[in-house]
Amino acid sequence: MAVVRRGRTSSVLSSVPLQILFYVNGIYYIFYFLATLAMIVYKSQVFSYPDDFLAPDLALLFIMAILEVLRLYLGSKGNLTEEEAPLGLSLVITVGSVILSVYFLVWQTYVLKADVIINAVLLFTYGLESVLKVIAIAAFVS
Questions:
Q1: Burial (Cβ within 10 Å: 0-12, 13-18, ≥19) of residue 8
Q2: Per-residue pLDDT tens over the stretch 53-109
Q3: Which residue, 2, 14, 18, is CA-closest to 129?
């Protein structure tokens, strides 16, 4: 005998592609951080890297790492709990991460071809994540 339930029906609204992208982006960011750190050290040894710019570049890289951890945590939490607020905050933090990524792509003291490649991949994943976040937030609100 089937039981008929009245009221709210339960359906899963979490985005699996978004969650997979969070996981992949977390792994990629570890590579990005280590590669960028290694390239900054390489540039400071091989080129005449001004000492006044070395510390700010390293500081911005570590600030970006902190933002990335926070962004991925809030995004994953918001997606899995189907809450708009953490996912929206993650979307706002993504803007800061994009600005820092553009800094390392364009405004860094020395920009190598490897910098261009790894930053282009990172910006692509940020864009894809942002689209999926907006879709997930729209699903959670409705």
A1: exposed
A2: 999 999 999 999 999 999 999 999 999 999 999 999 999 999 999 999 999 999 998
A3: 18
